[in-house]
Amino acid sequence: MRFLVISDIHANLAALEAVLADAEGEWEQIWCLGDVVGYGPDPNECAALLQEHDHLTLSGNHDWAVLGKLDINAFNTEARAAIQWTQETITEETRQFLTELPPQQVVPPLALVHGSLRQPIWEYILDRRTAALNFAEMEGETPYCLVGHTHMAVLFVEETEGTVDALAPDYGKPVALGEQRLIINPGSVGQPRDSDPRAAYALLDMEAMTLEHRRVVYPIGQTQERMRRHNLPARLIKRLEHGW
Q1: Of 202, 233, 160, whose CA–CA distance to 30 is shortest?
Q2: Whose CA is closest to 62, among 191, 224, 200?
């Protein structure tokens, strides 16, 4: 079976639509690693579009914050303002959808989380040391782990126990999933933070046992205009065109 692996949509409908169009016909199910909402202007539309497809979607920290399950004072000023706007904007249908999302899922040979195996909602795997600590949490039946949260596409490879390498994706080229244990981040659909503003995603083929990172251009200006219309913070609007 083939999966469209996405994360951190952050209520950016234009980016989500671009990803779905770019990968059309190449997957049977969506795996979304959390943060459907937050930051962006289209929380209801993104939740509804996901539900039009066969999907497995996890909860992220922004999803929890919108539901009141996290203290929003733990977020920076702009993120907090966007969360408050989202709380006032989402429909009861969207709220119910977010409420039902699990924080993690196991689909052997993969574990799926938003943040990390140690802290599924909140921990960022940004470096090799944190990755090594999470490799230590892996079970034998799940040598691969899919994560989001950082908004940066990366492959962490366990070379030997306690020794980890971090590899930048070679976009458009499938990577074989072999014997080495991996922590895989597909990057962010709606708010990349690796100085590349294009929407990021991955395709996972469980028959061929390959994973392919991809990027796709989307109409950033459309999302920015909708954000301005809703008086969302200017910094959140500007950062989209720079990918940070």
Answers
A1: 202
A2: 191
